[in-house]
Amino acid sequence: MLLAIAAWLVWQQAGFKAAKLPLTSFGVRMILNVAWSWIFFGMHQPGWAFTEIIVLWLAITTTMILFFKKSTFAGSMMVPYLTWGNFASVLKFMIW
Q1: What is the dihedral of CA 77, 81, 87, 93, to 10 degrees?
Q2: How many Å apart are CA 46 and CA 75, to the nearest integer?
Q3: CB crowding 36-59: b at 16 or more within 10 Å, else e
Q4: Interior CA angle at 6 toward 77 and 19, to 5°?
Q5: Contact 19, 11 (CB under 8 A)
Q6: Torsion of Cα atoms, 85 then 87 then 92 then 96, to 10°
């Protein structure tokens, strides 16, 4: 929910044309998020999932930075997601 609100804030403050890069980054991050679940759980490929999680982490970080440039509040709403992503990644790959 926080992620959707953050994207809405960026869109609301800048409009789509001015916020095209951050919102596109947000969309790419969403696709990567879904892809990770499919690779890890659907395909049972933890090695590829590890590679994908690194790309996902970079996408989350990039989106957060771009959001901060448009709205400090929207950028700060991405911090819990990045924190959770780090925590969940460590747990998943410690078990693996």
Answers
A1: -160
A2: 30
A3: beebbeeeeeeeebbebbeebbeb
A4: 130
A5: yes
A6: 130
pTM of the full structure: 0.87
CB atoms within 10 A of CB 85: 17
3-state secondary structure of 71: coil
DSSP code, position 77: T
The answer to whether 47 and 59 are in contact (CB under 8 A) is: no
pLDDT given for residue 27 in this prediction: 97
pLDDT digits (tens, 9 = 90+) for 29-67: 999 999 998 998 999 998 898 889 889 999 999 999 999
